[in-house]
Amino acid sequence: MNNPITAWDNDYARLARAASQLRTTSPNIASFHSNQQRQGQAASIQTGLTRLESQLGALESNLSLTPAEASRRRTLLDGLKGQLSSGAASVASGGGGRGDAAAALRQQDEMIDSLAVGVGRLKNQTNLIHQEANSHVRLLDEMDDNVDLANQGLEEETRRAMRLKEEKSVWRLHLIIVGLSVLLFLLILMGLS
Questions:
Q1: What is the dihedral of CA 148, 149, 155, 159, to 10 degrees?
Q2: pLDDT, tens digit, for every residue of 49-61?
Q3: Predicted TM-score (pTM) of this structure
Q4: By the number of CB atoms within 10 A of the CB, which of 63, 90, 164, 165 ranks highest?
């Protein structure tokens, strides 16, 4: 079940976690080396976002996504880009302008975005389960009909076998009666002679 939409969701969640980690690390006490490392991480996340944008364009052109779903995903990407650019500006300035409240709000927004991706995946899985359940119901109904037909055929065959058995039993009784009658007649004839 590794389709392009699920792969896109997984890549987005991974980039969102990386961006969240980048935002939550404190740039105030960062050394020059740590600051460069943060800028490298930001560039890596930016590259990933560009890749996700191109994948989203491909999914749209293949009509794999509805326009509303594609728009929602573009909004997620734009939000993550905005958070990344504000985080990059804060890294460049040493992080002096970023308050704890703004960071907490950004982190909450990121968590909501991640939840939205997860809910989307759950929706897709629920639809697949629904389709599978409907398929199973249809198959069970067909099996029930087939069992009913087989049961009717079996009952008819049983009735036919019972009639045949009764006919053979009556026939045998008739044969025994005729045989005994002939024997009686012969005995009477022998007794009279």
A1: 160
A2: 888 888 888 888 8
A3: 0.45
A4: 90
